[in-house]
Amino acid sequence: MIAIGSDHGGFELKKHVIGHLLEKGIEVKDYGTFTEDSVDYPDCARPVCKAVLAGEAERGILLCGTGIGISIAANKFNGIRAALCGDVYSAVMARQHNDANIICLGGRVVGRELAFMIVDAWLENKHLGGRHSDRVAKIHAIEKEQ
C-alpha cells in the first residue's frame, strides 16, 4: 500500500497520481488534504511519514506546491528518506542509491504526465544495496546522534 498526502498546493496533482496508481492496481491510502483550502505542509507530511514508519504503508508520496517544504518536513522523521524529484533519473537514483521510502513532488512545478513517469520509475526500482546500504546506514547513524 502507498500512503499519499498533500497540502493545498499539491492537492490537484495528488488526485491525478491517486487515479494513476489505482489504474495500475496499486492500493493507495489518502491521508489528505481533501480540499484546496490552505493547510500547512508539515501537518500533511506527519500522517504519511507515521504510516510508512509503522509499516502500515510500504512507501509514501507527498506533494506540496514545489515539493520543497513537504520534503523538508518529512525528513525530520527518523527513518524517513524523502526525496524531492522533478525528473525520472532522480526518482530512479532515489530508490537505487538512497532507498528513498517517500517521494515528494511539486504540484505547481511538475506536470501530470511527468509526475506519472517519476512515480512509476520510483516504484519500479529497488535499492541496490552494497555500498549504497553502507551510506544509508551512515544516514541512520546521523539520526541517532540527534
List key phrases describing it:
146 residues, alpha/beta, 5-stranded parallel beta sheet, 6 helices, 48% helix, 15% strand, globular
Mean of residue pLDDT?
97
H/E topology pattern = EHEHEHEHEHH
Which class do the helix and strand fractions yield? alpha/beta
Which consecutive residue ranges, at least 5 long each, have pLDDT under 50? none
Biggest beta sheet summary: 5 strands, parallel
Shape: globular
> How far apart, in Å, are the first and last alpha carbons?
30 Å
Give the strand line-up of the largest sheet. 2-1-3-5-4
- What proportion strand? 15-25%
Q: What is the total tally of β strands? A: 5
Q: Roughly what percent helix? A: 40-55%
Q: Assembly type of the shown chains?
A: single chain
Number of helices: 6
Rounded radius of gyration (Å) = 14 Å
